[in-house]
Amino acid sequence: xxxxxxCRQQIEEASRRYDMELGVLSREGLLxxxxxxxxxxxxxxxxxxxxxxxxxxxxxxxxxxxxxxxMASSRxxxxxxxxxxxxxxxxxxxxxxxWAASGTHIYDVSTLKPIRRLPFxxxxxxxxxxxQMLYLYNVEQESLYTLxxxxxxxxxxxxxxxxxxEPPKPGSK
Length: 173
Description:
The chain is α+β, with helices and mostly antiparallel strands. The protein is built from five helices and eleven strands.
């Protein structure tokens, strides 16, 4: 019980420190209200990775994918930009903490870089226990999309030479 209480206090401290005092998360996108654990001692808020221990340490921030970098040149207001960035927050982490998924991409947690695209934008998802499949809920079609062996079947990054112009239709893989 004491360990759980200490972990909760560290998460609350991290949330206050990185959202209110520094204003960091508000610039990165709206704070998604869930903390995702990545391995034994890492926790993810929005796109920021923190390491819990005697002291909370900032590990880094997940890199924005190429498509998100185009937003910087658009004419969105600061508020509209924060809402648009929310889709790039992390919504799921594999049980071993190796992989994370934002609303548009799959990331390698060790490098904080995107490695694959999702077939469609999504805010509700989960990795299978073994981390090989990614379940995506398609709100428009009200259906669960199972991305089997996502390392092979998820579309490549936008700037990859083998990137396809159109992502596959939900339910096609």
